[in-house]
Amino acid sequence: MSSCWPGGPFVWAVGELLRTVSPQKNDGGGIQLTEAGMISGLPRHVACVMDGNGRWAAQRSLPRSSGHAAGEAAVIDVIEAAHRAGIEWLSLFAFSTENWRRPDTEVDFLMRLVQRTIRKHSVMLYARGIRCRFLGHSDARIPPSLVRDIDELADLTRRNTGMTLTIAFDHGGRRDIVQAARSLILNAVPADEVTEETFAAHLPCPDTPEVDLVIRTSGEQRISNFMLWQVAYAEWVFPPVLWPDFDAAQFWECLRIYRSRRRRFGDVQVPVRMERI
C-alpha cells in the first residue's frame, strides 16, 4: 500500500481529514469559514497540474512515453478519490497549448493515450454519475477520431449530476482570456458594462466555479498558463511526488493541508495593530 505524502499510512490521512471536517454539507456555496478564518469544509473545486511523468521515466531509464502511460493510473485514482470525498468539481491539466512544441512522436503518443483512456474508462465515469467535459481541444491538429471520442464522452455524461470532471486538453489560460475579450467585442458589449462577472460569462465553460485548491505534483511551483482566471484566489499545494506515484492517499493529504490554511481573500481575519507614521 502506498504511503501518504509526506509520510504516514492512507488510513491516517483519511482519518485526520474526516476528524476535522465540519458535519455541515458543502451545499454549493463553496467552503465555509469559521470566525477564526479556518476552513470548515472541503474545497468545492480542485484542480491538478499533473507534472513529473518525464522525470519519473528518466529515473527508471525508460522513454518518456512510459511515464505518460504510468500516469493513467494516477488519473483514475484521483478521480475516484475526489468522487468519494464529495468534491463537486475536479479539473485535470492534461495537455497545454504549449505542449504542441514537443517532439511529434511524443505528441502523437499523448493523443493516442488520451483516446485509449477515454475508451477504457467512459463506462466507469458514466456509472459513477460523473459529468465529463473538455476545456480547449480546438486545434486542428487533434486527430478527428479523438475529437469524436471527446464529444461522445461529453454527450454520454452531460445529464449526470455528480462530480463535474473537466479535462483541460489543448488548453491555455491566456487563450481563454483572449477568447472572452473577442466574444465581448463581437457581442458589442459596451465598455462600461464590462465587469468581472460579465467577462467571466464569456469565458469557455462559463459555469465553472473559481478553483479553491490547485495541486501541482513533482515539486515544481509554476502556474503554467493553467486556468488563469479561475485560479486567482486558489490555494496551492506542491507535493514533491511525481505524478505517476500520486495516489488517493496523497490526494487526501492535500485536502488536509488545504483545510489547515487561512483564506482571507484580501481581508484581515484578526485585528492588526498599525504603527503610527
Please report the total strand number as a whole number: 6
- On the 0 to 100 scale, the average pLDDT is 87
Please estimate the helix content.
25-40%
CATH topology: Undecaprenyl pyrophosphate synthetase
Strand content: 5-15%
Supply the CATH architecture: 3-Layer(aba) Sandwich
User: What is the domain tally?
Assistant: 1
- Strand arrangement, largest sheet? 3-4-2-1-5-6
| Gyration radius from CA atoms, angstroms | 20 Å
Provide the succession of SSEs: HEHHEHEHEHHEEH
Low-confidence stretches: 1-40
Largest sheet: 6 strands, parallel
| CATH 4th-level superfamily | Decaprenyl diphosphate synthase-like
Cα distance spanning the termini: 58 Å
The outline comes out as globular
CATH class group: Alpha Beta
Please identify the structural class as seen in this structure: alpha/beta
The helix count comes to 8
Subunit structure: Homodimer.
Enzyme class: transferase
Keywords: Magnesium, Metal-binding, Transferase
Pfam families: Prenyltransf
Topology diagram in text:
Blueprint: H1 10-20, E1 45-49, H2 53-59, H3 64-85, E2 89-96, H4 104-127, E3 131-136, H5 144-157, E4 164-171, H6 173-186, H7 196-200, E5 213-216, E6 235-237, H8 248-259
Parallel strand pairs: 1-2, 1-5, 2-4, 3-4, 5-6
Helix pairs in contact: 1-8, 2-3, 3-4, 3-8, 4-5
How would you describe the overall organization of this protein?
The chain is an alpha/beta fold and 277 residues long. The chain has one domain (44-259): Decaprenyl diphosphate synthase-like (Undecaprenyl pyrophosphate synthetase), CATH 3.40.1180.10. The chain has helices at 10-20, 53-59, 64-85, 104-127, 144-157, 173-186, 196-200, 248-259; strands spanning 45-49, 89-96, 131-136, 164-171, 213-216, 235-237. Strands 3-4-2-1-5-6 form a 6-stranded parallel sheet, sandwiched between helices. Helix 5 links the parallel strand 3 (131-136) and strand 4. The longest helix has 24 residues, at 104-127. Mean pLDDT is 87; it is low at 1-40.
